[in-house]
Amino acid sequence: MAQDANDANGQQNAFFIFNVNVDGINLTQTLNTDINLWGIHLDGDKLFAIVDNSNMLAEFDDIFSQSGSSVSPDRTVMIEGIVRTHGLTYNAASDQMFLTDIGAAGSDSDGAFTVINNYMQASSDGIVTLSEQNRIEGA
C-alpha cells in the first residue's frame, strides 16, 4: 500500500508491506520515501510507483528485501508529454506499461492515457520519448 503525504499523516510518503496468510493480515514493514506517491504496481518484487505531481515513474527493485525504515527509488523514468500521471499497470509478459495522465488539475478536457510497448528498452535511458509511446488524448 502507498501513502501520499498530507497533514493527517505528518506529511510522510510511505509504503506499507503486509503479510497475508490464513491467520490474517499483518503489517510487516513501513518504508518511508522522499517521493510523493500515487499509484503503484507490483511485478514480483519490483515495485513501480507514480511520482505524484509529475511526469515521473519510480522503480524500486527487490522491494521486499529492503531493510531499515526508508527506501529510495533505484531509478526514475521521465515520460515525455505527460503532465501529471496517476494510474499505472505493467504487463511483464508483453513488456507493456500503461499510464494515465490527469493533465492539469483544474481542467476537465486534457487527460490522456499512454501505452509504452517494449517498456524496459524504451525506459533504459531514463526517458520515454513521445516516439516510444502511443498516447491517446482529447476531450
Describe the protein in words.
By secondary structure, the chain is mostly beta strands. 3% of the residues lie in helices and 50% in strands. It has one helix spanning 119-122; strands spanning 2-3, 13-21, 24-33, 37-43, 46-51, 56-60, 75-79, 85-91, 96-101, 112-117, 127-128, 134-137. It has a five-stranded mixed β-sheet with strand order 4-5-6-7-11, with no helix packed on it. A four-stranded antiparallel β-sheet has the order 8-9-10-12, with no helix packed on it. The mean pLDDT is 92.
What keywords describe this structure?
139 residues, mainly beta, five-stranded mixed β-sheet, 12 strands
- What percentage of amino acids are in beta strands? over 45%
Helical stretch tally: 1
The class by helix and strand makeup works out as mainly beta
Low-confidence stretches: none
Arithmetic mean of pLDDT: 92
Rg, Å, rounded: 16 Å
- Largest beta-sheet details: 5 strands, mixed
The gross shape turns out to be: globular
- The total strand number stands at 12
How do the strands line up in the largest sheet? 4-5-6-7-11
Topology order in helix (H) and strand (E) letters: EEEEEEEEEEHEE
Helical fraction equals under 10%
Beginning-to-end CA distance, first to last residue: 32 Å
